[in-house]
Amino acid sequence: MVHKRLDGLLFSQMVYMGAGLLSKNAKLVDGLNVFPVPDGDTGTNMNLTLTSGAEELARRESPKIGESSAALAKGLLMGARGNSGVILSQLFRGFSKAVNGKDEINARQFAEALKAGVDSAYQAVMKPVEGTILTVAREAADMAVRAARATDDIQLVMEKTYEQAQATLLRTPEMLPVLKEVGVVDSGGQGLLFVYEGFIRALRGETADQIREAHTNAALSSADMDEWVHEQHAQLHMKTEDIQFGYCTEFMVHLKHSTEANKKPFSEMVFRNQLDQMGDSLLVISDDEMVKVHIHAEQPGNVLQYAQQFGSLHRIKIENMREQHANILRQEEQKEKKAEAALPYGLIAVAAGPGLADIFRSMGVHVVVEGGQTMNPSTEDFLSAISGLNAEHIIILPNNSNIVMAANQAAELAEKSVTVVPSKSIPQGMAALVAFNAGASLDENREGMTSAIGQVKTGMVTHAVRDTRMGDVEIKEGNFIGIAEKEIVSAGDDLMKIAKELLSQLVDEETGIVTIFIGEGADEAQAEELGEFLNESFADVDVEIHHGGQPLYPYLFAVE
């Protein structure tokens, strides 16, 4: 199948197929993580990011590639999670800018757009590392540009792009020694390869359940539905419990190309009258091929069951209006709060575990965003936290190396003064808070807090999710592993033995205080034993013990 032009509909199909393949293989990509800890990591983050982009694309799908790519880029941007998700969002953000305003593109323009995406991704990373998804994307885009000079078939260009991406991925262990040591290829590059494979499959005309069907009838556009948008401000004068029909229900019925057997003949008058008895705010638009329906119903399942008698259902969307109304009231409360005098500073920190969250609040943090190793907050999560703060300056503490990029992206998008202090662990975040001074200038706080995060060492005890070897440390699945900063220093079946070995690596004659945070899988008696071990081994060290409640990590240690 030859494709000399690429429009918005075919591009959308490529994205849906790529998202489907990535979703199907997300756990495989997660399994390529270098560190054998139970993180939500690369595959999960890329999958959640691309799913967000595909959902936004499905809502705003257009025959014009400029408009479809813009919708995808917006969804990716708002849903980006983790470093891999942010980089993926930037690849398509640059692509979108390159095709902005175009109805369709040719092979050369497609290749140049891929190259523009790579440029955008490299610009987003402070210190690009070769042997990662960046390298895979860059060399693949370079091949696309070369291939487009030899052929005007977009499918052939994409196939050459995929082949180069595959070859580069296989070379990533030679570029990053840690990959070679563990015996894996780069996980982000592997995730991108699944996306590219989906692109090729769509260009070849293959189909999958993950592919949403494109718009088939422009006459039934969403513009007609826009006239029925709810008047949100009017809802402020009603109570949530007064809503009689609680579910805003929209869908399409395919009459001509239906997959339903024994369907009934369609009469718009009969259809409309029947639905009118099931709710209010009814809108029915139909032609010979399709019916588009909007209704507020209390039992949307009954509406769909009735409509299914006339054809197959598509683009089903059901929203809980009682929940929406409650959100509107909360937003109004936030607006009222914003009218109050602004604080000089607003502090946001990321933490997983109720104890850690409480400690951060006690140290002056205004908003604790739930997240960490098990689930990285998205750009949108940060923007939501930022919007809820009425402050002249907002400071974010990501407290995880895989969250810093999403925080930085939120800071760039926010319409407020937002600074990210790049704390990469819970102890670093707390050290930064100790250095914070509400009476100091923003520059003074940025400098002091950033300096403070370098004065604390972080130790973590977790468990291995697979067999591997890191340097001289042999690791078996299920072992406890001790991590000093970013290096695995011990592994074994005895939790206390591993914790003590880790502390011995972290504590030295210059150490003044060690803070122990108790997580899931550990108890206070064990923590007291570790405190006694420290007092016996290091006479001048003070020990503090707190309940952090963090998942997956029985112990976190802050060594200062």
TrEMBL record:
Residues 9-201 form the DhaL domain. One of its GO terms (molecular function) is glycerone kinase activity. NCBIfam families: YloV. This is DAK2 domain-containing protein. PROSITE patterns: DHAL. InterPro entries: DegV_domain_contain (IPR050270), DhaL_dom (IPR004007), DhaL_dom_sf (IPR036117), FakA-like_C (IPR033470), FakA-like_M (IPR048394), YloV-like (IPR019986). One of its GO terms (biological process) is glycerol metabolic process.
